[in-house]
């Protein structure tokens, strides 16, 4: 007891020290990535700024105050000075949850854009997560103020985006990755007109079609757009009359399933069952049991992603029998990697498109892009390689990394076009983003009136490679000019995709029977 | 009437919180401290039930969430999830608090006859059921949650006002819960905590006392939940999943689960660690990234529990006692640490007798 009493002051001191260190961190500079020389350590507003009406507070430059940018402050941002200032950029990445494995991929994607266009130097050659320095685009120094850590939930991404914008002072945010996150961020964007948001690779339809934030841009398709054409092929080529759909129970799963349903039903097919397991489910047995048996339906369409893809398919094998290429198809998650876990019988399965094409389509632009990635880092643990150290091109040739790359490229191209002019809440920049044609390795992209990408999508098929015997993806069709309305199926007035929407109806889709065949990686135009 | 050091410390803290927007940065006030005060308000209901009712509840974040979901359903007008009733925000608040309190009353009644670990497990079950209910039933939410919820015009675009609302409601809740503990009902509740069998034999309705305490705590947690959805603009089932549910308990434990004010202190430590850990010197070097937050919070809890099982408030009490002993030149026996906490403010004593003259008006 006596000793215990004597040690009490020491313990108290330790506890106080721990608390004080956190307080010190709170009072310190908010910038943990950029050169501290540009940033005073003090994160607090000037004392004379005690106004609880930030809107009246003109003139607090985020660069000088740790980035405590009021939400409704029209903002005298340093970039308002035009070219020659600093543009603070934040990246909303994904370090946890079902897509946490793609953290490196997406940060690398955004980083590569600044390496190519701004001369940025990554801070590490073996990970993208250490950020970059030295980027300058259109006379603006690009400062990476932070990398947000999402976990595919709206709750978490809002905390992260608020930290990037309100604490770190990000003026442009690239991201997020996942569907529910993007809806939340798009709604957040409406309350922050001083910040420009460029979607990473999130594919929920509602993000742009319903929310319509004027400062939120998406230079890729949504989940439905990526599945354009696959229903037509499954019905008219593979001969499916009926199909069951199993999809992640969240906005992207619904959107992706909606694309297949609209396409398949549009050409005369019938969706007889829809099953929606929660994203990140580990035991899919109860959900697989809800699906019709293989002799009751012509085929199954899988929209299960992240950590659940293999688990759901294994549950099907355990409950209903082998997976065969003629009875199973899926969206972008249905990759050749499945074969290593589930066997080569999956060959023959059709797969919906994504932001980047399968490896069988080559072009000088794609080759240069992938070489650029490999020249930027030695290697890093890419999600596209199952978390193994791999050449950067592995990550950047898959849609997650590519989506963020495209977002960065869009920002840079628009900045160059407007000469780095960020005045009036980025009005010139946003006008350029809205109207420009983005020149990107996997195809040019323009935006519609909702600032949503109009894209060329494709359908691929898993096939056995003649030489190696491995299962590989082969492009079978291209569909140019797919917009978010999906041939008039969706609009701002139609219910967003969910468990019940869209209904299964025959529709006159413009690409039905009109897709461009691809043979040996060459479109047959 | 003389004031205890506890009252003085709480009053000083309240003054600092009220004055904070005058010298704190916008982000610190509108994000860090608003979140701190809201979480503290929710965690204070855990402390209230534990300190005065002997019930450690894991259902308080569910109440917090139910209120948020009800506001989201009531005011929402678009999107793929929720009832989208399009009501006026203030009507939505009343609706949310009525529903939350009613659910708390129901769940309290269901669990009133359990105690100890069984009560804890039962309330954890409520939390899990709540998570899956709002996740699976897209009529009310779905796993994606409800987004794009704006606060009433009074707070829309005025984060400092929302901060003040959180502070004022926290002060009201703190004073109110302490007052409740001194009422006949509160004294009887403490009697139920200490010896339910004796209280029952004296004619008190033990289950009803517990149920009403649970409902009151649910109402206060619901108030915090309303503030949260106004502040956050969205809510999803993850907000009330088992992780955040345990976080709220951890907040109460860090602060001191036997002390109401400990809830806000614990919330402050929790939010500061959550938000500024990444800025600590050498944090990256030793792998202290955002993804390691739970590890850090676990270490903080371990540290606090080793230093003081009574939480940070307990450390403060010990500091005060140590300084008092240090000043004494005689060898008088020191007061027990909680002696001053058990004054007329109704603080828990650990063994609170229930005087018979205080049972007037109690529920029998």
From TrEMBL, chain A:
UniProt biased composition (Basic and acidic residues)? 496-508
Taxonomic superkingdom: Bacteria
Q: Where is the signal peptide?
A: 1-26
Q: Where is the composition biased (Acidic residues)?
A: 29-80
The answer to whether UniProt assigns keyword Signal to this entry is: yes
What's in the keyword line of the UniProt record? Signal
In terms of Pfam families, this protein maps to: Peripla_BP_6
- Which residue intervals make up region (Disordered)? 27-84, 486-525
Q: Which residues cross the membrane?
A: none
> Start and end of every Leucine-binding protein domain?
86-463
Q: State the family named in the UniProt similarity comment for this chain.
A: Belongs to the leucine-binding protein family.
Protein name listed in UniProt: Amino acid/amide ABC transporter substrate-binding protein (HAAT family)
- Taxonomic source organism: Ilumatobacter fluminis
Automatic annotation (TrEMBL), chain B:
- This protein's species is Ilumatobacter fluminis
Give the record's GO CC terms.
Answer: plasma membrane
Q: Which UniProt keywords apply?
A: Cell membrane, Membrane, Transmembrane, Transmembrane helix
Task: Return the Polar residues bias intervals.
Answer: 355-364
Q: Which InterPro entries match?
A: ABC_transp_permease, LivM-like
What superkingdom heads the lineage? Bacteria
Alphabetized GO MF terms: branched-chain amino acid transmembrane transporter activity
Q: Does the keyword Transmembrane apply?
A: yes
Its signal peptide is: none
Q: How does it sit in the membrane?
A: Multi-pass membrane protein
Q: Which PANTHER family is this protein grouped with?
A: ABC TRANSPORTER ATP-BINDING PROTEIN, HIGH-AFFINITY BRANCHED-CHAIN AMINO ACID TRANSPORT SYSTEM PERMEASE
Compartment annotation: Cell membrane
Q: Where are the transmembrane segments?
A: 48-75, 87-110, 116-134, 162-180, 207-227, 248-273, 293-317
Descriptive protein name: Amino acid/amide ABC transporter membrane protein 2 (HAAT family)
Annotated spans, Disordered: 329-364
